[in-house]
Amino acid sequence: MILDAIIAYFKGGSSLVAEVSVKISRITAKAEQAGAKALNFGKGIGNKIANSAQDLYKWLEKEFLELVEAVKREIF
User: Mean pLDDT in each 10-residue stretch from start to end of the chain (76 residues)?
Assistant: First the structure.
């Protein structure tokens, strides 16, 4: 009877460790997925900002060049 209790204790303990290990693995996998999604989101935002900055620069450059041409026409 004591031996049965000891065996049951150790079997129950090992299954508890296995369950915790499985749960930790699932949490780790979900954290990795969330990290990958956050990284992709960050890259997407960075690309959008870079494209917007380039578009803004091109627009400002065009406006400046048009202003310079207008001044040249007025002077000459």
Answer: 62 62 82 85 84 89 90 80
**Chain centre distance of CA 60:** 32
Tokens coding 64? 């400046």
Helix, strand or coil, per DSSP, at residue 76: coil
**What are the start-end ranges of the E strands in the chain?**
none
- Positive or negative, the Cα torsion across 54, 60, 61, 62? positive
SS3 1: coil
Global model pTM greater than 0.70: no
Q: How far apart (Å, rounded) are the C-alpha atoms in residues 22 and 28?
A: 10
Expressed in angstroms, the distance from the first to the final Cα of the chain is 112
